[in-house]
Amino acid sequence: MAGAGEDALDGLDARLLLLLSDEPRLGVLECSRRLGVARGTVQARMDRMARRGILRGFPPELDLAAMGYGLTAFAVLEISQGQRAAVSERLAAIDEVCEVHATTGQGDLFVRMVARSNADLQRVIDTVVAVPEVRRTSTSIALSTPVAPRVRPLLERLAAESAPE
Amino acid sequence: MAGAGEDALDGLDARLLLLLSDEPRLGVLECSRRLGVARGTVQARMDRMARRGILRGFPPELDLAAMGYGLTAFAVLEISQGQRAAVSERLAAIDEVCEVHATTGQGDLFVRMVARSNADLQRVIDTVVAVPEVRRTSTSIALSTPVAPRVRPLLERLAAESAPE
DNA sequence: AGAATTGCTGTGCAACATGGTCAGTATTGT
DNA sequence: ACAATACTGACCATGTTGCACAGCAATTCT
Predict the structure, then answer these.
(1) Domain HTH asnC-type spans what residues (chains A, B) (predicted)?
(2) Which of A1, B54, B100, B101 is within CB 3.0–4.6 Å of A147 for a Cys-Cys bond?
């Protein structure tokens, strides 16, 4: 065995995930061909990663902008002490709220939301700040996204670390 | 036709996307069965949404925490005027930087990053703030995620809007 | 050392899904 | 009334899936 942390991804796992990232609709068979391993191996790896919770599935990736929700905004909320759960719940009820994190530091909650237009965004922000336990908010609009959500570099590093024996 | 905005998603599109969100590995045939339409119809809808850029694909969804990257942190960067591109480029070169947005408001760039441990996070943050054009930073650590990235509510609204004739 | 375990390979098989095409039908637009 | 568009239901050849099997190598246990 590798000896070190055991239940970590090895090079093959990482290469498989990279392959699937690039061409997600590949079947198990194609993957096995491209990776140069047997089909059963790929199947076993995918099962194992799924069991471990690493590979959660293959959800459709939607482009909100293409769906009409061209605006993204972020908000940092400061809330009344002990109201995190209550506020989170209310935020979760707003369709346009796509993500909420509780954070350390000045703000307490960090919110990502989308909207169709400036007017729509105004409405969404108003809805968010209308949550009673919210004391102070500071919002900003995303102008561009120099780095879109990605995991690839980490996978590549894993693949590089484990492979070059 | 619907009469209104034409190139919008209709109820069937939305229901298809919802279905795929719930069970992403469903084949075209299964989808057609569950939606009660012909296979060709599903195929046509998926092709159309793909052409329009709405449906970008089916990338594997990975759980970074399960992969060992249990910590997520956010940073707001204030940078020297006109250096956005330069800074973005440097940030993109850092593996642990998973997302960067340029924003309005006080901060200029908003960064999401991950790390394996506190020590690792320290290192990552140091790397980020070491970018020369960065003037001021404020980082916070994600303690929890009351609302994980989601699109579902928007799809459900679409499905509800178009369907109930 | 010898035995057992584990992981990968390569094969075979039946069941099923895929992409393609085609004709028939309803609905919408001119 | 005619053309265009969208959906249906069927067909086909091909490829893929899930499963089980035996052979092999490396590693770990006793």
Answers:
(1) 9-70
(2) B100
Closest CB to A146: pick one of B74, B100, B146.
B100
pLDDT digits (tens, 9 = 90+) for B23-41: 888 999 999 999 999 999 9
DSSP A59: P
Q: Given a cut of 50, is residue A54 above it in pLDDT?
A: yes
Cβ atoms < 10 Å from Cβ of B149? 12
Query: SS3 string of B51-78?
Result: HHCCEEECCCEECCCCCCCCEEEEEEEE
Domains located in chain B, CATH noted: 5-60 (1.10.10.10), 71-141 (3.30.70.920)
Nearest to A107 by CA among A83, A136, A86, A130: A136
Q: Is the dihedral of CA B42, A34, A160, A55 positive or negative?
A: positive
By the 8 A CB rule, do A106 and B140 touch?
yes
Average pLDDT value for residue range B65-89: 95
**Minimal C-alpha gap between A7 and chain B (Å):** 9
> Which secondary-structure segment (H or E) carries A158?
helix A152-162
The answer to whether B96 and A157 have CB atoms below 8 angstroms apart is no
CB contact under 8 A, B145 and A100: yes
Q: Which two tokens stand for residue B97?
A: 């930087």
For Cα atoms A41, A42, A43, give the angle at the middle one, nearest 5 degrees.
90
Q: Cβ(A59)–Cβ(B24) under 8 Å? A: yes
User: What percentage of chain B carries pLDDT values higher than 90?
Assistant: 84
CB A112 within 8 A of CB B154: no
Residue B46 has which token pair? 């998926």
Find the helix or strand (DSSP H, E) in which B91 lies.
helix B84-92
pLDDT at residue B163, rounded to an integer: 57
- Chain B residues close to A88, C-beta within 8 Å: 146-147
Whole-Å CA distances, A65 to A71, A115, B126:
7, 9, 33
